[in-house]
Design a protein that fits this description.
The chain is built from 9 helices and 14 strands. With 297 residues, it is of the alpha/beta class.
Length: 297
Amino acid sequence: MTYNWWEIRVLCDQNLEEVIFWRLDTFGCRGTASQVKGNDCLVLGYLPEHQTQLLDLSALALNLRQDALCMSLPVPVMDWSLIEEEDWASSWKQYWQPQEIGDRFLINPAWLALPEKSDRIILRLDPGAAFGTGTHPTTELCLESLEMRLGLEPNSQATIADIGCGSGILSIGAALLGVGQIYAVDIDALAIRSTINNGKLNQIGGEKLIVEQGDIENLIKMVSQPVDGIVCNILAEVIIDIIPRFEAIAKPTTWGIISGILLEQAKSTADTLEQNGWVVATLWKRGEWCCFNIRRS
């Protein structure tokens, strides 16, 4: 069955980009992309036609206007149109270029040639319908945290659980940093397909990167013993709900990297972690978003 998709376009001040990403995520967009020129930013979001109505889109535009006014920024310009299914997943690709993250990673779109010379770890990625390109601040924070945690001490015996794997970018980043075994889950079938395909793009075999559709309960059944690390970059509301289940896959030395958390949600997330035997070792923030590096108390 063929579907049409809404393409939402928002031209805004660059300082509003992260808030718009968050609005589009909560609105239900299946993916976002952005292009920055000077201080201007074009943000795109995509969702199925049946998922929203014109009145909802108008309400979204009003929310973005109010966000800008509250932040004393220029009001963004938003418009939208319908595009056919075969066009939506590729229309945003023109805006995505190779991106350096942290000190070691280079995220390289799969449809572009590899750089002739680079001393960075090249992570090839085709997000497809699952998205997760590395351009969102929370993904950047997680990759940088992984680099800090694993970059200097590769451990081929280490195991990691990736909860809400999306395009597989964090799982693959961990594998390229030397982790020996990764278990990844996502409730979205498109994400599972994307993670598997991106693993193959980076020559990571199915015995090393084990991917299944499901939630943390499925993950608990997948792992044969507690993992060394947990990565989780999803919405804070979901993270808070599943924190009590982290214990089922953790040991006293297990660490975690969790993000997808707005600054205003940081306290409630930290409180839940502490109530369930975790300590927030560091908190990194970028714009309106933050990333927790946690360990067992």
